[in-house]
Design brief:
With 307 residues, the chain is of the alpha/beta class. The chain has eleven helices and eleven strands. 33% of the residues lie in helices and 16% in strands. Bound molecules: adenosine-5'-triphosphate.
Length: 307
């Protein structure tokens, strides 16, 4: 990527996630816009998954908009292939059929035999190790894509957490949490029906043979990283994420401090003239690689980026 050093949030998250005591707690990262949060979580995830031996969906990054998801995918795509990891995108940019063919590997069949999508005996595998998604398309895949499973997920990143928690987006969060919780039934249906008939509700079987290992511990858990430039500290909202001993990491002296190299423009205008002012501003900026526009309305805010 051509970066010569890491930004402070990237150093802080790396230290927390790599080495002794790594990922023992879920992380809540509150760091200003443009401070480099994407690479802060992408680096440790890619590092951790680099030793994986079987391809399956192990990291899921959820963002509220297609543009943001595409930018995050680019960051992963810049670093993941070097260690043999594949990154997928589920944002509704292409048709669901095209997306499915990108995300799910079709079985290799002998010449002359056709793949039957209705064949339940046919084992489907993920083509990607890391998926960057918006909630709507994620839900489409969870609900209807054959072979799409979250059962091997090790890392869940909720980027722009405030926005994602503010809007329900088809209840994506409870659904993801439900599908990533230890669900022995789906893995060992016969063993469990035998056990429940023998021992009633006693359930002590843990996952085995599934590569969701977490530091070699027998009871792997899903690690969560939640990020925002304005991370809510409202316990009732954060509770939805079901965080495990969350560690709050904040960078920047002030909550809304801008990074040194980021220039900030403020334009006050009539709301109906906003598009015109925006066009004028963009023209003035000419070749600038990226701008961010923040619209404030009461306590809510939105962040947009444009390349
Ligand atoms: N270590 C680094 N060295 C130089 N530039 C970097 C570094 N890390 C990230 N960047 C660049 O800084 C910019 C901001 O990074 P990024 O988009 O990850 O910030 P962010 O904190 O996620 O912002 P937002 O809150 O808007 O999502 C990007 O253009 C990225 O390429």
């Amino acid at each position: 990527m051509g970066f010569s050093s890491l930004f402070p949030v990237q150093v802080a998250v790396w230290q927390e996630t790599i080495g002794p005591g790594a990922f023992e707690r879920d992380l809540c990262i509150n760091s200003p816009t443009g401070s480099g949060k994407t690479l802060a979580y992408a680096l440790p995830i890619v590092q951790k998954l680099s030793t994986r031996s079987v391809k399956c969906l192990r990291a899921l990054v959820v963002l509220p908009t297609r543009d943001l998801a595409m930018q995050v995918k680019e960051v992963f795509a810049a670093i993941a292939p070097a260690v043999g990891l594949s990154v997928g995108l589920a944002v509704g940019q292409s048709s669901i059929a095209d997306e499915i063919s990108e995300l799910i590997k079709r079985p290799k069949l002998e010449a002359g035999i056709c793949y039957d999508p209705e064949d339940v005996t046919c084992e489907l595998q993920s083509s990607v190790d890391i998926l960057v998604a918006t909630p709507g398309r994620l839900m489409d895949h969870i609900n209807s894509t054959k072979g799409f499973t979250l059962e091997h997920l090790c890392y869940l990143v909720v980027d722009e957490t405030d926005r994602l928690l503010r809007e329900a987006y088809q209840s994506w969060l409870p659904t993801v949490l439900q599908f990533t919780q230890s669900n022995e039934e789906s893995l060992f249906p016969l063993a469990n029906s035998f056990l429940s008939s023998t021992f009633g509700s006693l359930k002590t079987i843990r996952r085995c043979g599934v590569e969701r290992g977490f530091k070699g511990k027998p009871h792997p858990r899903l690690v969560k990283m939640v990020l925002s430039a304005t991370l809510t500290q409202d316990p009732s909202k954060l509770a939805q994420l079901n965080l495990h001993h969350p560690l709050l990491m904040t960078t920047g002296k002030r909550r809304y401090q801008l990074p040194e190299k980021l220039e900030s423009y403020k334009l006050i205008c009539e709301s109906n003239l906003r598009p015109l002012y925006l066009v004028a501003l963009l023209q003035e900026l000419g070749e600038e690689k990226c701008i961010k526009i923040k619209e404030y309305s009461g306590l809510q805010h939105q962040s947009r980026r444009r390349r």
